[in-house]
Each structure stands twice: as structure tokens, then as C-alpha cells.
Design goal:
With 467 residues, the chain is mainly alpha-helical. The protein has a domain at 312-413: Cytochrome P450-Terp, domain 2 (Cytochrome p450-Terp, domain 2, Orthogonal Bundle), CATH 1.10.230. The protein has helices at 3-19, 71-77, 80-89, 95-108, 112-119, 128-144, 146-149, 208-229, 243-252, 258-271, 278-288, 293-304, 312-323, 329-338, 356-371, 376-397, 403-413, 421-441; strands at residues 55-58, 63-66, 69-70. It binds acetyl coenzyme *A. The site of acetyl coenzyme *A has 17 residues, from helix 17.
């Protein structure tokens, strides 16, 4: 059944290779001799901040390479678990390595305490991305006990965040002003108070095991948020399902059919890594201070949330629904161009050819539109919009659909609400963040660019009563 999907991907690959065959082949660049010379624009555009072997994006040929492997090949023949192993370790796993890795993912998918803590927050009133950031903090708390280690005597008997409850009562101390105190906390040797003997934990929050924990757990948290937003309680993962299958299962409560599972798997592979984008950079900046990986992933989630980055997929579906039908596209595009507004889902800082991810997602959306009439109108509107934008400005100015243009249609067909599109991006991209943070750790140097000060000097301070 899922061969249909492989065929779709292989055809997309052929089309992509044909389209950019005239573009010059990229030069293979060796290790840099630091310091390097490069032309830097605002927002660090063009700046080279480090070396990396994790992946490569070639904007003119429309290539996306993970550890030397073409994205089309990985989507056609691999799976998300294998691809994340590849990103983290640099090589495809042997059968034994895959089994070991997968068994850790299966284990880490169960986040009972994190979910219990999360349910205690008003998740239903929070945006899904904000709840996701909170959820990764809960994961940190459940698995690392880092906060319990941070137990300085100077702070008295403060309650560590690893404790389950915080005492609230205050006792009159006889002074003029009330003294507010936390209740005395029971001391536990070596912290990790609920840790069982010999139980392995990702204690330092910056190990390969932390990466596994985050790759696996972010999916569980995302699915739980989706359930809570729908007024339902979270689902336990099914250890027999794949990562993609579990994501769909834990969100929808239904075991996905093999084609849906395969399409979700492809979507996750496509979003896993994309060079030094804003969220990857944000997570690397945080990790470069030797903050742990949970904080680093929190920074990545924050950056991904924005509409210029991961938040665009949700905006696209809103835009398609606002346009309403293919018949309205021409007029809508003319109006938008005249207003000099950007069209969400088009354009990319790096790609000046068709984004290979959109190249795969477009025919997958088409396939799903044929199967699920609910998304047919959105797909046809998107197709017409693509033609119109390419005609009116795209081809000439090299503004093509990006990864976010068709992904929302795919997710909608799979039964996912639009507010979950960006968290699903994070479910996948957490692997790219982890791979880059892990790699950078080997030769860590704190990120510290400069700003050009264009303000005043030598101003004389005037006290408030004289202003
Ligand atoms: N619609 C219309 N015009 C566009 C678009 C667009 N989507 N994207 C770029 N352009 C035009 C700009 O108006 C600009 O024209 P000008 O030179 O006449 O001023 C030119 O192309 C260059 O655009 P920049 O914004 O400078 O390109 P940049 O590399 O900074 O931006 C970005 C890339 C942010 C993705 C931009 O294309 C955009 O805002 N797209 C819409 C939002 C979007 O889809 N984001 C998702 C990106 S993919 C991802 O992050 C996962």
C-alpha cells in the first residue's frame, strides 16, 4: 500500500533533479581556516559561525542533504527513527543499533509524570506552542533532577521544583511585618529523591540520552496538548507503533492506516533538519552557554513559533480558507501584490529553486485530496494560488512555495487541527536541533556577535525633578 507513496516521492525526485540540472554543481568545501572572511548582512545573513557535518542546503539546486544522503532518497526508503539516528550519529544504524535506539525511543515515549504535571496547568487556555515549551520543562524535571541538585544552603529550605507540592501556609512570627516562608523541605542525599536505585536517568541534561528523550518525548507532549485542547485526556503510546504512527494515534485516538502513517513519517523526515535556520541557531546559542539541552530545545520552540518561521504552516491554511475557492485566487493575488504584502508559504532565505520539501508535500497533498474530500477545495485553491504567484512574480523573482505551503493540507487530511501544525514541526525539528547542539558541544565556543552602536555618547544625566 505504502508503495504508492514511494512512487510519488520518486517521481517528485525526478522532477526536481530535471528542473535544476542546469544549475552549476556545488563546490566541495573543506574545513575552514579560522577566522574566515564572509560578507555579513543584518540579522547575520551570510555569516559563517561554525562548521557542521550534519546537513547541507543548496538553495540554487534545491538540494537538501542529511549527513550526505539526499532527502528524496531518505523519504522514499528510510523512516523517521532511522533518519534521526543518522542525524545524531552521522551514520545509518546497523540492525542492532537501530533496535537499541528504537527501544530507548519506545521507553522515553512514556512520560507519565510529565503529563500529570502538564495536566495541572491551564493547557486548554494556552497556545499549543506555549504549552509545548512548558511540557519540555516538565520532561526536564521528570528525568534530570537538575533542579534538585541546585539546593544551596543560602536559600534556606526552599522547595525545589522537583518537589510535588509547594507548602503555602505562613505562621505569625511576632514581627511587625508578616514573614512568608516555604515549609521545611525534607532533605534527600544526592538529590534525585524519587530515583530508584540503579535507575538510569539523563542526569546532566546534555547527553546523547537527553537527545533521545527529547526526540521521543516531544511527540508525546504534542499529542497530549492536542488532546487537552479538545477536552480529552492524553493517550498512552502504543509500543508496537512507529514514531509517526504513535503521534497520529496519541492525537486522534485511532490507529492510523499504513498510508496515513507513512505520509506522517515522510512529513517528519522532511522537517527534521534544515541548516542554520532561526530555531536551530536559537537552540545552539542557548546550548553554547553550557545550559542544558532542555533549555536549548525551549529556545528552539520559541523561535519556531514565529510566523516567519515554523508558524507559517498554520497561517497558510488560514489564508487558503480565507481565499475560499480557486475562483477567488486571481483577484486575491492581485490585491495582495498591490498592497505589497508577502504571501505566506512562498519564498525562502536560502532556496532560489523549488523547495524540495514542497516538491514532495505537493503530490502527497494531491493524493490526500483525492482520498479525503474535506481538503479537496483547499488543495485546489493552493494549486491555483501556486500557479498564479509563479506567473505574477515567482518564476522571475525565484519565489517558490516553501515547506509550509502544502504541509497544512497534508496534516488537515490526517485529521490534525491547524493549531497543532507548528508543534508537529517541532516534533520533527527537535532532532535537527539535538544533532547540531550535540555536534557543537565537541568544540563549544559561546556565541557572541556584536552590534554596531549607533547611539549617543557623553550625555549628561538630568535628575527627574529637573526634566
Ligand atoms: N510573497 C511576496 N514577496 C516575497 C515573498 C512572499 N512570500 N517572500 C519574499 N518576497 C519578496 C520580498 O518582498 C522582497 O522583495 P523586494 O526585494 O522587492 O523587497 C524579496 O522577495 C526578498 O524577500 P526577503 O523578505 O528579503 O527575503 P528573506 O530571505 O529575508 O525572507 C522569508 C525569507 C522570511 C521566508 C520570506 O520569503 C517570507 O516572509 N515568506 C513568507 C513567510 C513564510 O512562508 N515563512 C516560512 C519560511 S520556511 C520556514 O521557515 C520553515
Amino acid at each position: 500500500m505504502s508503495d504508492i507513496i514511494t512512487d510519488i516521492i520518486l517521481k517528485a525526485a525526478e522532477k526536481a533533479r530535471h528542473e535544476t540540472s542546469n544549475e552549476p554543481e556545488p563546490k566541495v568545501v573543506g574545513p575552514a581556516e579560522w577566522p574566515v572572511n564572509c560578507t555579513v548582512g543584518p540579522g547575520l545573513e551570510g555569516a559563517i559561525a561554525c562548521e557542521s557535518k550534519v546537513g547541507s542546503v543548496n538553495g540554487s539546486k534545491g538540494w537538501l542533504i542529511y549527513r550526505g544522503y539526499d532527502i528524496f532518497d531518505l523519504c522514499a526508503h528510510s523512516n523517521f527513527e532511522e533518519v534521526t539516528y543518522l542525524l545524531l550519529h552521522g551514520e545509518l544504524p546497523s540492525k542492532k543499533q537501530f533496535e537499541e535506539y528504537n527501544s530507548r525511543l519506545v521507553k522515553y515515549r512514556h512520560l507519565n509524570k510529565s503529563l500529570r504535571l502538564l495536566v495541572g496547568f491551564p493547557v486548554e487556555n494556552m497556545s499549543a506552542m506555549s504549552a509545548l515549551r512548558l511540557g519540555t520543562n516538565m520532561m526536564r524535571q521528570e528525568f534530570t533532577f537538575l533542579d534538585a541538585d541546585n539546593d544551596p544552603a543560602a536559600r534556606g529550605e526552599a522547595i525545589a521544583s522537583d518537589d510535588d507540592s509547594i507548602a503555602m501556609e505562613t505562621q505569625p512570627a511576632g514581627g511587625k511585618s508578616a514573614t512568608y516562608e516555604f515549609g521545611v523541605r525534607k532533605k534527600f542525599k544526592n538529590s534525585g529523591r524519587s530515583r530508584k536505585k540503579n535507575e538510569k536517568r539523563t542526569d546532566d541534561g546534555s547527553s546523547i540520552d537527553t537527545c533521545y528523550h527529547l526526540i521521543s518525548g516531544v511527540a508525546t507532549i504534542t499529542a497530549a496538548i492536542s488532546r487537552l485542547h479538545n477536552g480529552r485526556i492524553p493517550f498512552e503510546p502504543d509500543d508496537k507503533l512507529s514514531h509517526a504512527g504513535n503521534l497520529l494515534y496519541m492525537m486522534t485516538g485511532k490507529k492510523p492506516d499504513p498510508v496515513a502513517e507513512r505520509i506522517m513519517d515522510v512529513a517528519l523526515i522532511l522537517h527534521a533538519y534544515h541548516g542554520m535556520n532561526a530555531s536551530t541557531f536559537a537552540s545552539m546559542v542557548v546550548a553554547s552557554t553550557l545550559s542544558d539541552f532542555y533549555f536549548s530545545v525551549g529556545a528552539g520552540i520559541g523561535a519556531l513559533n514565529g510566523p516567519l518561521h515554523g508558524g507559517a504552516n498554520e497561517e497558510v491554511i488560514k489564508m487558503l480558507r480565507e481565499i475560499g475557492s480557486p475562483d477567488n485566487v486571481e483577484q486575491w493575488v492581485a490585491k495582495t501584490i498591490a498592497a505589497k504584502k508577502k504571501i505566506t508559504g512562498f519564498g525562502h532565505r536560502v532556496y532560489k529553486a523549488y523547495d524540495p520539501r514542497a516538491r514532495i508535500l505537493e503530490p502527497l497533498a494531491e493524493y490526500l485530496a483525492g482520498e479525503y474530500p474535506d481538503v479537496k477545495n483547499e488543495f485546489l485553491t493552493a494549486k491555483k494560488l501556486e500557479d498564479e504567484v509563479l506567473d505574477k512574480m515567482g518564476r522571475e523573482r525565484k519565489i517558490f512555495p516553501n515547506v509550509d505551503f502544502y504541509s497544512g493540507i497534508v496534516y488537515s487530511a490526517l485529521g490534525i487541527n491547524s493549531e497543532m501544525f507548528t508543534p508537529i514541526f517541532a516534533v520533527s525539528r527537535v532532532s535537527g536541533w539535538a544533532a547540531r547542539v550535540l555536534e557543537y558541544q565537541h568544540n563549544n565556543r559561546i556565541f557572541r556577535p556584536r552590534a554596531l552602536y549607533t547611539g549617543d555618547f557623553n550625555k549628561q544625566y538630568i535628575p527627574p525633578y529637573m526634566r
